[in-house]
């Protein structure tokens, strides 16, 4: 289940069960306290957010647009919505609040089931998340969205477009499209698409809104495909408890002639401890896997701070050929693993563009309301200097082309990986 949604539901239940129920709520903040929180929020982003150079956002204009609204704001709920709008001006899916409302947009990419972008001014489906509502309702790569909930796409995205841009930015339009398609936690989505000249109506949240309850058979799936090994990590790169079962599963596959590591379902990212533990099982000597840059230090002092992060070998090494699979739901630390294996020269990376989440996030908390927020504060790079968010797999699969004439059960990325390993067999 979406963690923010789960926390909100649990908190509401606890409130109802507490003595006095809703009357037990804290005293509302004063206007001055809301202003103090907003100023802390705005100033922190101004100094620490590390992607302004890649954005068209006028951050001073953001303050001019949103701070006056605090004069009529009287509830935490309304303040959360104002912060959501202000943060969306960055059009950055790696920046977010630590709380939400039931009518807040789902998180991208972890709470989504389809990835689309504007291509020649059409909202084209580029990828579909397996097993969820979009796929179940017939949506496939290459289709074109024409309406969302009965409204033409160009009109429907307007509420999600940033208002404080110096000039138009295609990335901001794609951000708005992603959040339009994500929907909220309450309202079932209805999509109209065009496929081969014919209309398709898709209702991805029927019979249930499954994105609020994404489940996996296990954290780690392990099996043999012929004489090849296959390991799939299911959205738990943030859990140090993954390390022991990963080691055990890899040990059981040590005699295979090649291995596939599937990172296509890691949208929530993770931590570098887990990532380094995984990479450490495949290398013979230590080496750098990614480069960091703390731009806030340069902003404040004029001195650049850049460093490399290393991986150290550990445990029995798997020495056979390795292929790493990535896609649109490979996020954050999953992306770090992909560029790390590539930098170490230890694996062939196969798939599509990843989630393209910016940098490493730092967490902050507003002094009065206690609302948390996260923003990218470190830029991350391939050791050769390429920004992580622009990394494209050396073996690229165009899912729009691959989907033609194939069923939803066909997995062209996995098929390509098996072909590559078969060619590398000794």
UniProtKB/TrEMBL annotation:
<dbReference type="Pfam" id="PF03572">
    <property type="entry name" value="Peptidase_S41"/>
</dbReference>
<feature type="signal peptide">
    <location>
        <begin position="1"/>
        <end position="24"/>
    </location>
</feature>
<dbReference type="InterPro" id="IPR028204">
    <property type="entry name" value="Tricorn_C1"/>
</dbReference>
<keyword id="KW-0732">Signal</keyword>
<protein>
    <submittedName>
        <fullName>Peptidase</fullName>
    </submittedName>
</protein>
<dbReference type="InterPro" id="IPR029045">
    <property type="entry name" value="ClpP/crotonase-like_dom_sf"/>
</dbReference>
<feature type="domain" description="Tail specific protease">
    <location>
        <begin position="186"/>
        <end position="392"/>
    </location>
</feature>
<dbReference type="InterPro" id="IPR005151">
    <property type="entry name" value="Tail-specific_protease"/>
</dbReference>
<dbReference type="Pfam" id="PF14684">
    <property type="entry name" value="Tricorn_C1"/>
</dbReference>
